[in-house]
Every structure is written in structure tokens, then in C-alpha cells.
Amino acid sequence: MKKLKLWLARSRIPGLSVLLGLSLWMVSPYLSCPASRISQVDAAEELRPPFDLKDPKIIQEGNEIFNLRCATGKCHGKDGRGGAGVILRGAGLSQDYITKAVFFGTRGAMRGFKGRLPDEQIWKAVAFVTSIQDPKFKESTGVTSEEVSAQQGDPVAGEKLFFDTQTLGGAACSNCHIVGDQGNEVGPILSKIGRRSPDYLRESLLKPDAYIVPGYEMIQIETRNGWNYKGIKKEETSTELTFVDMGGLTPKLETLPKKDIATVTVQPGSPMPSYERLLDERQLNNLLAYLKTLR
């Protein structure tokens, strides 16, 4: 490398030193870097499955691995039917995309399994997910009781209930959620929540503590003068903490100087109430039917 740089310095060809020097600068990290520093995308392109991904036995084993590792924690749901993560059945994803996602994760959404599971198990999971990409799997997943509930409901009545502060008061969905340009942004925006599975939606309404979307945990704030607040943190600077105060009849945005705060602790449970006793079965089905239209 030193000899080449010296030759460039002595060269009299106009612009050659600059052009070759720039080229060397661009490729030099790759001339000396270990294999571990090759980008994950390049590494994915070099991956080759150690067996036939269409082998029914491999696919079955991959299904078991998927349900153990990818369906829990409200991720992609059993057999890829969907949970907090996207529905994978009939999604039309390419094998290349699936391989990179399962091995190395997706930006800001999912951790890869490279280094957390043996490569053989990862490939079996890839085989299963690849096997359910045909659009026919959207119709062949079976019908759950939650899907029946959503199908039986009236989405028009469900939409009215969503925004009805007279019936539900402070527990009205629109007090804490936005759909389109209506509602309040206290909890997650629901404009595309219908992409989630019916069982995830139903459980979110009846058992909100089962899964709390990251960033929407309940916090308790104790001030130095003895005041206590419970709410959801929205923004924090070096001098102030802004949060949604959930202690009143309706959520309210508050800001406190950090110098006045004694402690901030994350509380167990969801800020969202359970609708198990607030809605009858008909109202619940209507609300589910409306939520399923939001895509």
C-alpha cells in the first residue's frame, strides 16, 4: 500500500493521483477488515440453505420452531396468523427477504436470530415462513372464534361506538387513540390497526395488560413537594418531562420541570382499561368489526 501511494505521488499523469487515491480510500477498509465486518446484507447474499427448503419434514420442524420463537410475545401469532407483528400467511414475501429478516432482523422492528439460534434452526424457520407466502394461505388459515366475532359485528355501529363519549365516557376509544384525523394521540395511532389479527384486537380490548406497546407504559411521577401523577411519557428534555396525566376523567397533557421531580417509575399494567365489563358481546363484535376495516 505504501509503495502504491508513493508511485501515485510521483506520477505526472494529470488527475491520476486524485482518482486512484479516491478509489483506494473507498476500498481500503475492505482490503484489511476481517470477515466479521462484512455487511450483514452481503453476508445474507452469501448464505446458502444446507437442505431443501421445500422438504415437508423441514417445513414442519420450521413450523414448530416458528411457534416457539416467533409467535410468542404477541409477535407474528401462531402459524403466522398475526399478532402485534404483521400477518405472514399469504403475505407474498420473497425467500431472499425472509432469509435476511430472520437472520439479521428488520430496521427498527425485529431482532435477527443470527447468533441467538443455530443456523440450522434459522433455516428451518425460513423454510416454514417461505412455505406460507402463497396468497391461498390467506383463505386457508381456518376461522377462529375471534374472526367470527368480527364478521358478526356491524362496523358502522362499531365506528359510532369508537367515538361515543356519551356511552363510554372517559373510556371512549377516541379519548386516547387517533383514527385518520379524529381523536387524541395518547395511545398508539389506530389508523391501520385492522392489519392485526382479530385475536390480537380482541385480547387488546379485553386483556390490555397482556401486551403493552413499547413506549406506552404507565409511569408514576412523584414530585419533591409530595404530588403524585400517573400517565404516559410523551417527551423528555434535559430540563422538562412532558406526559399525559391519566389521573382525571379525561387524559391531559402536563409538563413538569425535572428539578421538581423526585422519582419516575414504570408501573405494571396498561394505562388502557379493560372493556370486558364495559361492553356487551354485541357492542364488542361491532367494535371489532370496525377496527378490522382500518387498514
Describe, in plain words, how this protein is organized in 3D:
With 295 residues, the chain is of the alpha+beta class. It has 4 domains: 2-33, no CATH class; 42-138, Cytochrome Bc1 Complex, Chain D, domain 2; 146-212 and 273-292, Orthogonal Bundle (Cytochrome Bc1 Complex, Chain D, domain 2); 219-266, SH3 type barrels (Roll), CATH 2.30.30. The chain is built from 11 helices and 9 strands. It has a 5-stranded antiparallel β-sheet, with no helix packed on it. A two-stranded antiparallel sheet has the order 1-2. A two-stranded antiparallel ribbon has the order 3-4. α4 (56-69) crosses α6, α7 packs across α11 (281-292) and α8 crosses α11 (281-292).
Describe the global form: globular
> Which class best fits the helix and strand makeup?
alpha+beta
Helix and strand run: HHHHHEEHHHHEEHEEEEEH
Count of distinct strands: 9
Number of helices: 11
Distance between the first and last residues' Cα: 57 Å
Proportion of beta-strand residues? 5-15%
**Reported CATH architecture of the largest domain:** Orthogonal Bundle
Alpha carbon gyration radius: 26 Å
Mean pLDDT metric: 80
> Largest beta sheet: what is the strand line-up?
8-7-6-5-9
Total of domains: 4
CATH fold annotation of the largest domain: Cytochrome Bc1 Complex, Chain D, domain 2
CATH class of the largest domain: Mainly Alpha
Helix share of residues?
25-40%
Q: Can you tell me the residue ranges where pLDDT is under 50 for at least 5 consecutive residues?
A: 16-44, 139-143
Q: What oligomeric state best describes the polypeptide chains here?
A: single chain
Largest sheet: 5 strands, antiparallel
